[in-house]
Amino acid sequence: MASKQSLLVLAAVAACLLLLPAASVATDVDYCSRGKKYPVKVSGVEIVPDPVQPGKPATFKISASTDKTIQKGKLVIDVKYFFFYVHSETRDICGETTCPATGSFMLSHEQTLPSFTPPGSYTITMKIVGDDNEELSCISFGFSIGFLASS
């Protein structure tokens, strides 16, 4: 039978674990073409905060690596809400990471969604296209938009 002292220690440890901030969870990523060997490999996506809150800034961090040197290029981003395309944009890759990019690098994009954005599940498809229109990578991942957070 456990002593009162050991039970108190276990209770204190459990209370401390509950007070720790939640660790950010990496989002699952799928490549657009499963058999294709993309020059840019994506190792993970982190979304902060998760779920995303309408009207509040959200940061999407994509960890990637490549053997190529990327001097310039673009990110082509398409967003779907269930099966409906709701947003599309093209960004300069050097505005989202330091160029030239080679080896391990991170693409970081911050966006504030309109406050009227409906809550639910969304899917992003992101293509990394080189300066010669070569598709360097294409990934898809899901994210959630929560209800409007109180100010």
Automatic annotation (TrEMBL):
One of its GO terms (biological process) is intracellular sterol transport. CDD domains: PG-PI_TP (cd00917). Coiled coil: none annotated. InterPro entries: Ig_E-set, ML_dom, ML_PG-PI_TP, NPC2-like. Residues 1-26 form the signal peptide. Keywords: Signal. Residues 29-143 form the MD-2-related lipid-recognition domain. GO terms for molecular function: sterol binding. This is MD-2-related lipid-recognition domain-containing protein.
